[in-house]
Amino acid sequence: MNPTVLHLAKWYPNKVEPLLGIFVRKHVLSTKNNFHHKVISIYNTDDSENKITRITNNFEGIEEVVFYYKSGIATKFKVFYKVWKEINSSPVAIIHAHIISWASTLAYLHSISTKTPFFISEHWSGYHYKLFLKQNALVKYFKLLTAKKAKMVFPVSDSLKADMLASGIKANYQVIGNVVDGEIVERPKNDKFTFVFVGDLEQKHKNVKGIIEAFSELKNKSKLQLDIIGEGEDKQDYINLSTNQNSSDSINFHGYKSNTEVFEYLSKSHVLVLNSYYETFSIICAEALLSGIPVIATKCGGPESFLDKQTGLLIDVGNRAQLINAMKEIQSTYETFNPKVLKEKAEVFSSLKIGIELTKSYNSVLS
Length: 367
Known about the structure:
Blueprint: E1 4-9, H1 22-29, E2 36-44, E3 52-59, E4 62-69, H2 73-88, E5 94-98, H3 102-114, E6 118-122, H4 137-149, E7 152-155, H5 158-166, E8 193-198, H6 203-206, H7 208-217, E9 224-229, H8 235-244, E10 251-255, H9 259-268, E11 271-274, H10 283-290, E12 295-298, E13 312-315, H11 320-333, H12 339-346, H13 351-366
Parallel strand pairs: 1-2, 1-5, 2-4, 5-6, 6-7, 8-9, 8-11, 9-10, 11-12, 12-13
Antiparallel strand pairs: 3-4
Helix pairs in contact: 1-13, 3-4, 7-11, 10-12
């Protein structure tokens, strides 16, 4: 019988937010053939009859437990107590905490008495923005302690690892990227040369405003297309901006799309544009490569770990002139990018490859 790994996840898909922490589920699935998995997560929502509701689900053989709880300090303490009881009633060989948070703290506390080894995966961008340093002393103490006591800490990029080290977090680090996979559907390219953006429409993180402004500066807009996929608080502002820039005829807002639909849009497009201020990894950039299209991206942290001259163009953060020039240049050099090479770049993040890395780490403590 395969050993059991118990995952404690701060972010995880649930009935309210089915895409929340989808990257965690993909990490779990990557080793499902070698280990039995159980996931416990909590989710704060007032759309529930009871103060605390425990819901179980089986997703491709993974036992998933979500505790939904209503707001309130007392209720939050009660939900943590229920999680603690569930942890102690689950015979496991390894605990894997996802995000240094309550998940890693409970994993550490459990390990004190049971000697169960635990790992931590990290995705949080807050280290880059110095948010860790602004947390209260007790929270910082437990985060520093759990990182130090974990068998390994897995940041998803070298950039995130550097930000964690700069925050004073000492650990046995091993960078393991996100799983990038999907149903690749080959589609004929759009008639117009198409730039595509996929992500949250939030200016403070993604700077879609810069993409719209740069696109509007291009002289041959009548032969170009910009597809914007996603939802967010700044969507209407972006729609208004495209009108004010006299570009609304060439810019299409498609709203939220499923992962399968996103791959269809990527396959029909010519170039992905990422203009973020910071990314710990950027799954969409890797998905674009997997779809065989080049990428224009800012040097915003995570993307530099796998993007280079073979995959497209890298520009400085917040530099509109560079973005305009990159959008012009890639139109003339587009045919030089080999879809086969682009796909090979993304294959290092396949479920198989990431699963092998995680399996090695798990086995290192079991042997």
